[in-house]
Amino acid sequence: MPLQSSNLYTFQKPVGGKRKYLASTIALALLSIVGAVGIDLALNPNALTILFGSSPSSPTTNPNGTKSATGNAIDYRYGTVQLKVTKTAGKIDSIDLVQAGATAGRDQAFSMLVDAAVKANGSSFGNVGGATYTTDAFKQALDSALSTLG
Questions:
Q1: Rounded CA gap, 110 and 129, in Å?
Q2: In 113-134, which positions are buried (b, 16+ CB within 10 angstroms) versus exposed (e)?
Q3: What averages of pLDDT result for each successive group of 10 residues across the chain (150 residues)?
Q4: How far is Cα 143 from Cα 123, in angstroms, rounded to an integer?
Q5: Which positions ≥6 away from 135 have C-beta within 8 Å?
Q6: Which pLDDT score, from 0 to 100, does residue 95 have?
Q7: Looking at residue 58, what is its pLDDT?
Q8: What is the CATH number of the domain that holds 145?
Q9: What is the dihedral of CA 79, 50, 113, 66, to 10 degrees?
Q10: What's the pTM value of the predicted model, to 2 decimals?
Q11: CA-CA 20 to 30 A from 118: which of 4, 18, 84, 103?
């Protein structure tokens, strides 16, 4: 008398089934990782610069007494800010944006922040309206570069 079962797979012998499942599982895992990285890059264009971006530099001094240094990259809610500051005779001459990421138009605040920092000769200036997080990150990046200058 043949054995009966309500499950079709109970009495069947799998032929290469384990290999197929393993290969498809590995392929699915790889596609998931690649997709996650792609989505991260699409939503955060600074993701690669965060991983491979510029690091703080030691100060350089020119023969005319001009010093410049790059501070740490500061990550904040809307992007990343990293600055290079140049000083002559103790006064800030220029501030270069090494990384200046900001979403939804917040990057427009950077020109105002640079002007305010040069006028104040540091980070003791007010916030830019509507860009509080960007201002805070800019001030942190500025302080980092200034501390690197010494």
A1: 12
A2: bbebbbeeeebebebbeebeeb
A3: 56 56 79 75 56 57 79 88 90 90 78 92 86 89 88
A4: 7
A5: 109, 113, 127, 128
A6: 92
A7: 62
A8: 3.90.1010
A9: 180
A10: 0.62
A11: 103
